[in-house]
Design brief:
Helix content is about 40%, strand content about 25%. The protein is α+β, with helices and mostly antiparallel strands. Strands 1-2-3-4-5 form a five-stranded mixed sheet. Strand 4, helix 4 and strand 5 form a beta-alpha-beta unit. The radius of gyration is 16 Å and the shape is globular. It starts with a strand and ends in a 13-residue tail after the last helix.
């Protein structure tokens, strides 16, 4: 396998990141049915994500193999509500983790999660959180294998 390097995404990487988001949207649409499949949805989400990350001391981290972006991870430093104890109230958050379908099962997601963990510790925080669709069993298995445990359950009811 080629050597994988990590770097912070630049504005010039927008198209590449949007392409990965679009790929994830289509994949998740097959799982849950409530995701838009059009490319414009990925562009809109990228813009929303960048705004959210800029407010939360965050960024997108890219994984590259021989100069080709093969994965992207949104990461931010966040703060929970005042009722959470001080020791873990501030935490790192993986907002998105997308590995190109041709590059899955090669440890790239693990590499990005290690980077999120490193950045969280570097900031002096003791908790890292990530979300996954219940229907995305592969992602959940990967996250559990990395050491994540269920913490919050969000339930949904179609009306």
């Amino acid at each position: 396998m080629p050597s994988i390097t990590l770097r912070t995404a630049l504005p010039a990487d927008r198209g590449t990141v949007v392409e990965l988001i679009h790929q994830l949207n289509v994949f998740e649409a097959d799982l849950v049915g409530d995701r838009r499949r059009d490319y414009a949805a990925a562009e809109e989400y990228y813009d929303e994500l960048m705004q959210r990350l800029s407010r939360r001391n965050g960024r997108i981290i890219l994984a590259e193999a021989e100069g080709i972006v093969v994965a992207a991870m949104g990461f931010s430093l966040d703060q929970d509500a005042a009722y959470v104890i001080d020791d873990v109230r501030n935490h790192g958050t993986v907002t998105d983790l997308i590995v190109h379908s041709d590059w899955r099962a090669r440890g790239i997601g693990q590499m990005l999660l290690n980077e999120a963990e490193r950045l969280t510790k570097e900031a002096g925080h003791k908790r890292l959180v990530i979300g996954a669709l219940v229907a995305n069993e592969r992602a959940e298995r990967t996250y559990r294998a990395f050491g994540f445990e269920p913490y919050v359950s969000i339930l949904s009811k179609e009306l």
